[in-house]
Design goal:
Blueprint (H helix, E strand, L loop, with lengths): L1 H21 L2 E5 L4 E5 L4 E8 L5 E11 L2 E9 L7 H13 L2 E11 L2 E10 L4 E9 L2 E9 L8 H9 L2 E2 L24 E2 L2
Antiparallel strand pairs: 1-2, 2-10, 3-4, 4-5, 5-9, 6-7, 6-11, 7-8, 8-9
Length: 195
């Protein structure tokens, strides 16, 4: 009887990751020019982003939570403004970095667009994987945050979320500006590039 119990236990463990893996889906938002993967459907809300310069722009926020991981994608629409994209990325990075200790911060590329990827350890014990990009007239801020008491437990999910980011056209087609087929990592990400 003990062997059967161990067999069931091992079988249950082997099946559990497959079930968790299959629950991830891609969510596409052509109006915002973005697609990303999540284990649950996101809620959509609207807000505003105000820069230090006083410029205020509308944002669309896609957020979800499963277990101890919180996910968000913030899309800020800068159409009609005269901001310098790199300055907006730098200001966003500085603001996010102030929330904790930066474990790493690197240049990154997604679909040929240059941005930043960060890993931040907060004082409350949470950990965040962050991607910041500016393409077209939009700032994209993607944050996967694992929450205490065991923030390390969800780090694989936050990395998957961060690396699933894709930029798409109004029709939903992928925008690839780099060499087609040369991506160097999971779909949507050519991997971080160090400065």
């Amino acid at each position: 009887m003990r062997i059967n119990y161990l067999f069931l236990l091992v079988t249950g463990i082997a099946i559990a990751p497959v079930h968790a893996e299959s629950s991830w889906q891609e969510y596409s938002y052509p109006d915002s020019g973005v697609a990303f993967q999540l284990p649950v459907a996101p809620k959509v809300s609207n807000d505003k982003l105000i820069l230090q310069s006083g410029i205020s722009v509308p944002t669309t926020v896609y957020s979800a939570r499963q277990d101890n991981v919180a996910y968000s994608v913030i899309v800020a629409n800068f159409a009609g403004t005269s901001v310098e994209p790199r300055a907006v990325i730098n200001e966003t990075e500085k603001t996010i970095s102030a929330t904790g200790t930066v474990a790493f911060s690197v240049d990154a590329r997604v679909d040929g667009e240059i941005g930043r990827q960060l890993s931040i350890n907060a004082a409350d014990g949470s950990r965040a994987k962050v991607a910041i990009f500016f393409t077209g007239d939009r700032l994209y801020e993607l944050i996967g945050r694992t929450l205490p008491p065991d923030a390390a437990a969800g780090s694989g999910e936050t990395i998957r979320f961060q690396e699933s980011l894709r930029f798409i056209s109004q029709s939903g087609a992928e925008l690839r500006k780099g060499r087609p087929g040369v991506r160097g990592g999971p779909p949507g990400n050519a991997g971080p590039r160090r400065r």
